[in-house]
Amino acid sequence: MSYPGRIINFAMIYKSPDMEANKIKGKAQGLTLDNGVELTYCELGQDHQEILVTTAFYFHTFMPVVEELAKRFHVYALIMRFDGPTDEINADGTTNWARQWGKDLYDFCVKMGLKRFIHFGKCHGTIPGWYLVKEHPEMLDCFASFYLLPHVKGQTSNTWFDGLNQGIEHMMGMAMRKQKTGIPKKIAEVRSIGDAANKPEFQKYAPSPELIWDSLEDCDKALKNMTVPVGYCFGTQDPVFQDYYESNIYGIMNTRGSRTIFLEGEKHLMELDNPERVAAEVFDFVDQCHKGYYKEITEPTGDEEPGFLLKTMMKAAAKLKGVKA
Which of 123, 117, 177 minimizes the C-alpha distance to 147? Predict the structure, then answer.
């Protein structure tokens, strides 16, 4: 597959997919795209017909969620890479990693023959899904965007990244309820996968799906004219939610036809505290999409006719008075 007019940046040093296998706690597989990029993924739930694709920097502490999802869906879990050739280039020559991760997902799905599916992402893992919302919405049955949405109203505070700068154990204390069991698991995960995700070029794009669009105005317009069912889920004790509080509330209130669930008391690393509940919220959202609730909100019913309510009330009043309307 060729991409006319795109610039390929070979400045990044490429690693073989075997080097990426450490990012998956399970059987990792590699796929070479037509442009030479090699991606790492795992596949579970092959006996199921309905396809769900999920994306993340790594699948270690998140694997229990993937395994829960695979009890109902045929799941592809794709690693979001940090190196290799890129073709989503900014005007200054740097890589727009938000768009690159999304394009990798698109190319992966095309190569694998996945024409339509559910996408589920949590935090940074939502970024590729937002790319599909913008560029290829026809591929999405629905999109479960947990713990992150595009921020068109800026950042309120910086609690999360300030916590990261104070050390992993401090940050983990903010991020999970079950610290006694969760912190050792998370530290082991970080040691296994390395610290590439903390580089500035990735920290810039990982929490920022709005950078997929050319401007915040374009992003805002896309939310208000959404054509894909979107399901949001947030924990009330998540510092990332508070860091983007104004943007989050705005996005929730302005994403056309969206569904939002708040889980009181849950923190950012909910996959460590209760992976079954994360999967259950995905299942519930998908079930509601199957029942057509999104279409009830977004498709015309006739009730939107100008003056419809007033005409109906006048007819009702006329009948009560015994006068022909």
Answer: 123
Question: What is the tens place of the pLDDT at every residue in 150-182?
Answer: 999 999 998 887 877 787 677 778 899 998 888
| Burial track 192-220 (b if 16+ CB lie within 10 A, e otherwise) | ebeeeeeeeebeebbbbbbbbbeebeebb
Q: Contact, 56 vs 80, CB < 8 A? A: yes
**Token pair for residue 301?**
């019913």
Helix segments in 155-262, DSSP class H: 159-165, 168-175, 179-193, 200-205, 216-224, 239-243, 245-254
Summarised one tens digit per residue, pLDDT across range 41-80 is 999 999 999 999 999 999 999 999 999 999 999 999 999 9
Q: What is the DSSP letter of 192?
A: H
| The domain defined by 17-291 carries CATH number 3.10.310.10 | no
CA distance 183 to 189: 10
Phi, psi of 68 (to 5 degrees): -65, -45
In this prediction the pTM is 0.86
Helices marked H in 71-178 = 97-112, 127-135, 159-165, 168-175
Instruction: Check if the beta carbon of residue 104 is closer than 8 Å to that of residue 37.
Output: yes
Are the beta carbons of 169 and 183 closer than 8 angstroms? yes
8 Å CB contact between 210 and 104: no
